[in-house]
Every structure is written in structure tokens, then in C-alpha cells.
Amino acid sequence: MQLQRIVITGIGLTDPNANHLNDFRHCLLHNMPRIQEIDVRYMGKLPAGVCDFDPLKYQTKKELRNCTRAGSIGIFCAQEALLDTAISLAEIDTSRLGVYVGITEHGNVETETEVYNLSQFNYDVKFWAHYHNPRTIANNPAGEINLKLGIRGPHYTIGAACAAGNAGIIQAAQMLRLGEVDLALAGGVSESIRSFGIFAGFRSQGALGHGDDPNKVSRPFDRMRNGIVVSEGGCLFTVERLSDAQKRNAKIYGEIVGYGMNTDATDAVLPNAERQAQCIRMALTGANLKPEDIDIVNTHATSTPMGDAIECEAIRAVFRDSEKTYINNTKSFIGHAMGAAGALELAGNLPAFDDGYIHPTINVDELDPKCEMKNLVINEAKYVGEVRTVLNTSFGMLGTNSAVIVRKFLA
Q1: Which residues of the chain have pLDDT under 70?
Q2: Residue 168 exposed, middle or buried by CB count within 10 Å (0-12, 13-18, 19+)
Q3: Is the overall model pTM greater than 0.85, yes or no?
Q4: Residues that are catalytic
């Protein structure tokens, strides 16, 4: 089957250190993380990645009272992505616009908050929020985008743990190729820092990062890494068929040429290097590329001792013979944005097609021997001149694995 070529024509994002791709890229190239300490209910001060966007740019105060943080992040990213791609919703058939938003979790924040608030009123349910049900349904973040923007096409969230950002992108590409939609907003969002249960869960697993300097707690591949920094964030791409993008002379960030998803089916938490390597090879096969054709592998590594080492084993298995492939990590700057992670990390690397730099993994004071990989870029950006392909990996609990390959657009 002759597949339609699928391209990215817009990017809207918010992450702990930026609200625009250019600013995000500047932080990545100049070693500028922005992790802070926040008060987490029942747990005290903990390092976290907090977004600093203006929700009133696209929503009213009343809308903010009724919506979720994840929905607000999604609305901001969707509006910014459409603005970036120069598409006016008033001029298109929005029933042909699909919204596919990856999430790790949803509903925790609202339910935890409501139960806590109820405890202040002797658990009298008359104080339970009127909007609790629409806030907590699984399709909420995508649904809030459609509701706010008046989009009438299909919308749904994709629960794929921490592979969800990639899964949203993959879903968009598939639906465009099937002809189900003509345009898509796709990626992922996360409001994880608002849930004490997320922090408590990682702590109970021994996977919650800690340290004196919040900006140095997320340290993938470092011998002294001790766990995840929980972050919120969002990134949505405008995705469309190349033929449509060319008709309106759209700016093209890159072409989605390959992707893969599979499942470990071995453990709820501990990853499987063999299955991760298989997922990466699936993406390479779909793109008709060899390992040596990949210029950047952006890793998922979350700064957990076992998770990072297992992923490095998978990457070495695929790329050990490639002299041209460089490897980096974005979570060292922004922490782990859960459902938004894959989309944000891909976005941060796409400008390499224009500037020729590979952003580093920072906070690596002593490389763990288990994480040694050929051409690992650490602590300082590396100029390589030409970057043609980026492979982004994202892996999640219950053994869900994903890989997306984007190539520099060539007509």
C-alpha cells in the first residue's frame, strides 16, 4: 500500500522552562533547567517541574474554575499549535479535525482534591463539585480542547502510560493515512504534579528523586541518580498530509516516517530491554531506515537506577555498530512530564534540523558504566553540522513501548 506522507506543520507547548519552541530550544542548548520545590499535600517540599504559562490567554476565569489543569494545558498548546501553523478554524471544516491527546493518568487530581475538601465539611457530599464527573472522565483533556475551540471532529485521549505522547502522534498519522481526518492536533499533556498520589506512588517504589539542588535531581545516566522528578506540561503538534500542507505552502518541521509500539508482557514496572529494542527496530523497518541512518536518539531515561540501565542495554543492542548516531536525553532539563514527555522531547530535538546541534544530557557528573553508549552527548551541546533524522523513544508502566522517527523534510 502506498502510504501518504505525513508532516508536522505546527507546534504548541508549555514545559517547566518555556512556553514556546524557540525558548525551549535555547534552554536545551544553554544548559538551563528549571525545576523547583513545591509543597505536596502530606509529603512536604519536593522537586517538581511546574509550567508558567498564562491560562487567561485563551480561557476566561469562569472556564478555569470549571475545567481541569490538564485541559487548560491542552487548550493552550492547541491554540499555539494552530497559530504556529497559520490555520484558522473559521475557514476549515472542523468535523475533519481530529484531536488525539496522550495521557498517563487523569482524574486523580480532581478526586484527591474533592475528597480532601469534603473532609473539611464532615464529608457532606452536598459540597462535592458539580463538574466532578466531566472533569474526571478519561477523554477530558481532549474533550476540553474540542469544547473550547468548537472542534467537531473525533477526540479522545490515549492512555499509554509514559509512552502516551508518542502514541498520540502515532494515532494522528494513522488516522490521516486512513482518510478519517484531514488535520490533527496530537501529542500529550500532564497535570501530574497536582496529585500527591503520583509522588507517593513513586516514593513507595523507591523511584522518587531527591537531592539538595532541585535542578540536579533529574540526572539520567549519572552513577548517583536516584529517581524521577515529576513534572507537568504539554505539547501538541499540528499534523497533516504532505499534499495538503503543500497546497497552502505550510512551514514543515519534519516528516513522520516511522513508528512502532509493542508490549513487554513481562512486568508491571520493570522494563524489558529485548522488547524495547524490538520496538525501535519496528520503527526503523517502517521508515525503511538502518540504525546508522539515525542521527539523534532521544532517550526516555527517567533517572531511575534500573530503568536507565535497561534502556541503555536496548539502545546498545540496536545502535552499537553505528558511528553516526548521537544519543541525548531531555528529562535532565524538565523532569518527567509523563503523558507529555514523548511529545515535548521530540519537539525539543526537531530544531536540530535547522541549527545542526544536538542538545546534551546534563547533570552527568560521573557516567554510570551500565549507561555507557557510543556518542552519548553529555553536559555540553555538540555541533554536528547536519541532522536529518530524530528517533524518539518513550516507554511506560505495564510494559508499553513506543518509538517515533521524524526526518528532515525533503520535497
Answers
A1: 1-2
A2: buried
A3: yes
A4: 162, 300, 336
